[in-house]
Structure formats: C-alpha cells, structure tokens
Amino acid sequence: MKPLLRIENLSVYAGDRPLLENLSLSLCRGERLTILGETGAGKSILIQAIMGLLPPSLRASGSIQIDGRDLATLSRRELECLWGRRLAMLPQEPWHALDPLMRAGRQVAEVYACVLRQDAERAAANARRDLAGVGLEQAGDKLPGQLSGGMAQRLAFCAATAGGAQIVLADEPTKGLDADRRDHIAELLRRKGEEGCVLTISHDLEVARRIGGRVLVMRGGRPLEEGPAEQVLNAPTTDYSCRLIQAAPGHWPRIERRADGEPGPAVLEARGLAKRHGGKRLFQGLDLRVGRGEILGLVGDSGCGKSSLGDILLGLLAPDAGQVARAPGIARHRYLKLYQDPPAAFAADIPLGRLFADLLRLHRLDASRLPPLLERLRLHPTLLERPAHEVSGGELQRLAIARALLLEPVFLFADEPVSRLDPITAREVVQLLTSVATEHRCALLLVSHDPELVERVCKRTLRLG
Ligand SMILES: Nc1ncnc2c1ncn2[C@@H]1O[C@H](COP(=O)(O)OP(=O)(O)OP(=O)(O)O)[C@@H](O)[C@H]1O
Ligand SMILES: [Mg+2]
Fold first, then answer.
1. How confident is the model at residue 250 (pLDDT cuts 50, 70, 90)?
2. Could you tell me which residues come within 8 angstroms of residue 229 by beta carbon, excluding any fewer than 6 positions away?
3. Residue 210 contacts by C-beta under 8 Å, 6 or more apart in sequence?
C-alpha cells in the first residue's frame, strides 16, 4: 500500500543547532502513530514541518511526501490546498487554531461550507452534530474567549477535522481534559486513523494506549524507540522509555502528600462565592480557607469553572456574590497564577530574557536567583534569547513557573501547571512546586484533570460541579 505520509531523514536546524535529526517514518491508510517523548524533543517541530509551516529562521533537510508528492516541490497555493482537505493539524495551543471573533458553531460550519462546499443550512447542521459529539452542544453561540481551555481544545478538534482530511496531525489534543473526555477524543482519533492515518503527540500514556497502532519515543531531537503501542508501553527496551513510562502519576510515591504538614495562618479566605457564566451556574455558596504552605487540589470537569474560581480568588474577576479576603500586609504581586495556557502569560514577540529582566528590575529582585531556578527546571539559559513562540510548549510552561517563583508567591493558583510536560519532567516540576510550598510556606491551589496526580500531592481537594 502506498503511504499517505512518508518522511525520510528529516532534520531541522536552528543555525547549526539540530532540533530534529534524521527522522524517518511512514503512515499508510489505517495506521496510527503516537509520539511520546521529552519536552523539547522536537515533536511539535516535526508537525510544523509536515504542514509546511516551519518558521523561515529554521532550515530543514530530508524529504516529506504527502500522497507521494514531495512537499518541497509544491507551491504555497498547492500546499494551502492540502490544508483541511488532505492534511489537518490540531496545534498544541488550541487558541492558535481558532478565530477569536467567530462563534464556536460558525468556526466549524465555515469548514463545511468553504472546504466541502456545503450550503449554509447543511454546514450549520453538521457543525451542531460535531459539537454535540464532543459535549459542546450548549457552546455553539460562544466566542473562543468565553470557553474554558478544555472546551477550546474540543472546539479546535471539531474545526480541524471537519474538512475530512485523511492525514490528521494532533499535538497534545487531550491536555487539560478529564478522563472521560480524554478517552472520547482518543477514540475519535482512533476512528480517524481507520479512515486515513493519524499522528498524535501526547504526554499521556493512556492516550497512546487507547489510540493503539504504533508508538515512537523521542528525546533530544532523535527517535529512540518505535514499535506496536502495547509492546513499547508494556515492555520498553530503552532506559529512557522505561523511565518515562514509570514516571506516570499512577506510579508516583504517595509520600509527597505529607509535604504540606499543618496549614499555617490563612493567606486567603473566601465566603459565599457565587458565579454564573452565560446562564450556567458555576458555583454558589462556596467557602474556602487556604493556609500558608497548604497544598489544596481543585478538580472538576472541563468547563466547570476552575479557572474562573482562581481568577476570583486573585481579584481578577468579580464574583456575583461573596467576598475574598487576602492576608493583610502582603504585597498583591505575591498572589499569583500560572495560566492554563502558558502563551497567555507572555508577550509573543519580545525575547523572554527581556521580559525576565523587566520583572527583576520592576520588583528589585536578586538576579542571581534566576540561573539556579532555571537549572532546577532543566531550562537552558539560551532559551531566554528567543521569544515565547520560538520555544516548545513545555519549555514555556516551565518558564512561566520560573517567573512566578521569582516573585516569592504566598499563594499560587497553579492551573494545570504540568499539562504540557512529559511524565518525568512533570514529576520533577510537581516536586519543585510542593517543596516551594513546604520550604517557603507558599499556599498552592493545584488544578489538575488527573485524579492520580491530585491524590498523590494534595491533602485536601475541592471538587467543583
Ligand atoms: N523557532 C525556533 N527557533 C529556535 N529554536 C526553536 C524554535 N522553535 C522551537 N525551538 C526549539 O526546538 C526544540 C524542539 O521544540 P518542539 O516545540 O518541537 O518541542 P516538543 O517536543 O514539541 O516539546 P513539548 O513537549 O515541550 O511541546 C526546543 O528546544 C525549542 O526550544
Ligand atoms: Mg510541543
């Protein structure tokens, strides 16, 4: 059978620094491949290369063939004709796939109308059906900015796949989704893979298991191990794959639960909080006391109001009822949040180093604290030379954590703080956050869709919805 997608000896360089080296793979109809691997391994770069969307500053060698045609020989117009029809991408950041000014239903209907030339009525009906299929039947009239991170992710999935493309590339399509929704998206991808072929990037081993097909493990720009999903996930042969698979939260020791000890005096107290969004009640009569150094979990389905609660606690969003009291005498900037979508926290085009320098200057912080913090987060200092859109999703997530910790927070609302990290790095980062909570008495409100992670790290858990 002729492959739909064939990659031979693909390498990508930034100057003389390789980001991806000598990668070859092919996918025929009915095949699924899931790529697991270290944050910064070059996974998203691979997907960008297949789409023909590498930034001009990067240089690629080797060949990529779609339906037997070499991408390098296609004009920009021919390439664009493939998008949505033959080749569809779900980018790592769902917001990048959505038009911020177009309502959810329209975003999907447009694909049916423009790509498949359906009349408006049929396109709208198909869009409604697709949205209902991912639990978004109520969200058709919403703008992307009114959706939660997980809802935006599901909307992006519908918009990307509506054109019926046979080659689907999905970059971490289930991050931040609760287990049921995650399994549902994995099932949709598995089915897409029966009609055409699917290449998925994920840090979630369960997603790889459910999609099935083959698994490829990558690290440092190189493929390490490839084989049938069951084989790689159950009996990996390389040391790195073994460690990666062992590092899933289900295997973390529970000892970390003891990390928070007895909660200290309150840093934050909320009484009778209520919030509605677009006619839906998110919560009502909610009381919460968070003590210094306490690690508290916050869980609930995608779209239930976790991020909204965080914004209310931080004074970024007004509640419909109730009050929030922060401890007196503590500077406002020490109450912080880690955004669910790290790009939301950084100016896109300014070198990260300049953003850090501004922060150090503004708050008169000791600049010598930055290098050890970066090292602890396994971030190379040269990353700071680039702007946010030129580092990987997981690198940016860790840079956001470094920036928050520099400010010595007393309360940190950590909204899915490890959603873009491989299990090994995720474990290290969670350990860092819990030790900051213990050593510096910073209260941590940890949002996660992963019950195993929350259970291992938090003594007390608040469930919304
Ligand atoms: N435009 C760019 N210029 C220079 N380096 C880049 C650029 N874009 C990405 N990189 C670097 O290339 C490496 C691979 O990036 P990539 O985004 O592919 O990682 P990834 O495997 O997707 O990681 P993650 O799991 O964190 O998303 C990273 O070290 C990143 O900093
Ligand atoms: Mg990536």
1. confident
2. 34, 208, 209, 211, 212, 213, 214, 215
3. 183, 186, 187, 190
Span from the CA of 54 to the centroid of ligand 1 (angstroms): 11
Our answer on whether the CB atom of 40 is closer than 6 Å to any ligand 1 atom is yes
Residue from 20, 45, 53 whose mutation best tests the ligand 1 pocket (most atoms within 8 A of CB): 45
Q: Is 54 in the pocket of ligand 1 (CB under 6 A)?
A: no
Q: Domain 5-246: which topology?
A: Rossmann fold (3.40.50)
* Domain limits, the chain: 5-246, 251-463
Q: Does the fold of domain 251-463 match that of domain 5-246? A: yes
Q: Quick one: pLDDT band at residue 202, thresholds 50, 70, 90? A: very high
Residue nearest to atom 28 of ligand 1 (CA): 40
Q: Give the ligand 1 atom nearest the CA of 218.
A: 21
CATH code assigned to 251-463: 3.40.50.300
Q: What's the mean pLDDT in 144-167?
A: 90
Q: Hey, which of 48, 391, 401 would you mutate to test ligand 1's pocket, going by the most ligand atoms within 8 Å of its Cβ?
A: 391
In tens, the pLDDT along 25-55 reads 999 999 999 999 999 999 999 999 999 999 9
For the chain, what percentages of helix, strand and coil (3-state, to nearest 5) are there? 45, 25, 30
Residue 262 confidence (pLDDT) above 50: yes
